[in-house]
Design brief:
- The complex is a heterodimer of chains A (about 150) and B (about 130).
- With about 150 residues, chain A is of the alpha+beta class.
- Chain A has a domain of about 90 residues: Beta-lactamase Inhibitory Protein, Chain:B, domain 1 (2-Layer Sandwich).
- Chain A contains four helices and six strands; from the N terminus they run H-E-H-H-E-E-E-E-E-H.
- In chain A, strands 1, 2, 3, 4, 5 and 6 form a six-stranded antiparallel beta sheet that branches.
- In chain A, a hairpin with a 2-residue loop joins strand 2 and strand 3.
- The longest helix of chain A is centred in the first third of the chain and has 16 residues.
- Chain A is rod-shaped, with a radius of gyration of 25 Å.
- Chain A starts with a helix and ends in a 15-residue tail after the last helix.
- Chain B has about 130 residues and is an alpha+beta fold.
- Chain B has a domain of about 80 residues: 2-Layer Sandwich (Beta-lactamase Inhibitory Protein, Chain:B, domain 1).
- Helices cover about 20% and strands about 45% of the residues of chain B.
- In chain B, strands 1, 2, 3, 4 and 5 form a five-stranded antiparallel beta sheet that branches.
- In chain B, strand 3 and strand 4 form a beta hairpin.
- The longest helix of chain B has 12 residues.
- Classes of the chains: A alpha+beta (about 150), B alpha+beta (about 130).
- At the A-B interface, helix 1, strand 1, helix 3 and strand 2 of A face helix 1, strand 2, strand 4 and strand 5 of B.
- Strand 1 of chain A pairs parallel with strand 4 of chain B.
Chain lengths: ~150, ~130
C-alpha cells in the first residue's frame, strides 16, 4: 500500500512541474569567415575580386555614398532560461523569466569605393556596423583599412 | 498502485523530442553557378539560375542575390528541463553586373546550407 504521504508527495511533485521549467537553448546562425581570410584583408591594396575570393559570398550588399558595402554576419548564442509560475488566482498568474545571455549578431563590414577598391574593414556587432555603413552615411570614412 | 504511479511518472518524465528541417527558397545548383563568370550576360545568368531572390542597385551597377537557406532544429523536452538547438546555414551566390547591368563583372558563391546539423546545445557541430 502507498501511504497518503507518498500520494501527497507525488501530487506535489506534479504540481511543481507545472510551475517551473528550465530550458537550455542554443542558436547558431551562419559561421564567421576564417580568421586567416579576414587577416589577409589588411595586406596591401585589395579589390573586390580578391575579397570575394578570400571570404566567399557576403550576406548583404548595399549602396553607400561614393561606393558600396558588403557584410557577413553570424551568431552563436546560448540561452538558459528559468520560468517560475505561481498560480495566485484562477485568472492571474505571476511569472519570472531570466535569461543569462543577450543575443547579439556579430558581423564583418567591408566598404568599397566606386573603383571596387577596399577602403574599410571593420568587425563588431552588426547593428553598429550597419549604422556606420548604411546609405545615410554622408560619405565613406576617410580612414584607410589599416586604421579600422 | 506502485506500478501505476511508476508508469505515470515514467510517462510524465518521458521527453517530447523533435527534429525539424526548414528551408527558404529553392536549392541552388553549384554546377550552374560555376558556369557564370566575368563576361557572362545577365540573360545567361537568369537562364542558368532563374529569377534572383533580390536585386540591389549599386549606383550605375546591379547585384543579383541567389539564396537558399536551411535550418535544422532539435528539441528534447522533459517535464521540467528542456534542451533546444537550432542551426541555420545558407547557399549564397552574388552576381555583380557592370554598368547598365548587362554583363557580369564579379561572382561570389558560398555553399554551406548542407552543413546545417541537428544537435544539442552542448554539441560541437562541425564547422
Amino acid at each position: 500500500m502507498v501511504g497518503p504521504a507518498r500520494v501527497g508527495l507525488f501530487a506535489a511533485a506534479l504540481l511543481f512541474t507545472s510551475c517551473i521549467s528550465i530550458v537550455w537553448e542554443r542558436d547558431r546562425w551562419h559561421r564567421p569567415p576564417p580568421p586567416s581570410a579576414v587577416d589577409s584583408l589588411n595586406k596591401g591594396e585589395l579589390h573586390l575580386a580578391a575579397c570575394l575570393d578570400a571570404l566567399g559570398a557576403p550576406l548583404h550588399v548595399w549602396q553607400v555614398t561614393d561606393g558600396y558595402a558588403l557584410s557577413w554576419a553570424w551568431y552563436d548564442a546560448e540561452d538558459l532560461s528559468y520560468r517560475l509560475q505561481l498560480p495566485l488566482t484562477q485568472t492571474f498568474n505571476t511569472s519570472l523569466d531570466y535569461s543569462t545571455i543577450d543575443r547579439k549578431t556579430q558581423g564583418l563590414l567591408l566598404l568599397f569605393d566606386d573603383s571596387d577598391r577596399l577602403v574599410l574593414v571593420k568587425e563588431g556587432f552588426l547593428q553598429d556596423l550597419l549604422a556606420e555603413g548604411d546609405g545615410r552615411s554622408p560619405a565613406l570614412p576617410l580612414r584607410k583599412k589599416s586604421g579600422a | 498502485m506502485k506500478r501505476a504511479i511508476a508508469l505515470i511518472s515514467l510517462l510524465l518524465v518521458l521527453p517530447g523530442c523533435f527534429a525539424t528541417r526548414s528551408t527558404v527558397n529553392q536549392q541552388l545548383s553549384a554546377d550552374a553557378a560555376s558556369q557564370i563568370g566575368p563576361g557572362t550576360s545577365a540573360a545567361e545568368v537568369v537562364e542558368l539560375l532563374g529569377a534572383p531572390s533580390d536585386i540591389v542597385q549599386l549606383g550605375h551597377r546591379v547585384a543579383y542575390l541567389y539564396e537558399f537557406q536551411q535550418s535544422k532544429m532539435t528539441g528534447f523536452l522533459a517535464t521540467v528541463v528542456g534542451f533546444m538547438n537550432s542551426d541555420t546555414r545558407s547557399d549564397r551566390v552574388w552576381i555583380f553586373l557592370g554598368p547598365g547591368g548587362t554583363e557580369v563583372t564579379h561572382v561570389a558563391a558560398s555553399f554551406d546550407a548542407d552543413k546545417a546539423q541537428n544537435g544539442m546545445p552542448w554539441s560541437d557541430l562541425h564547422e
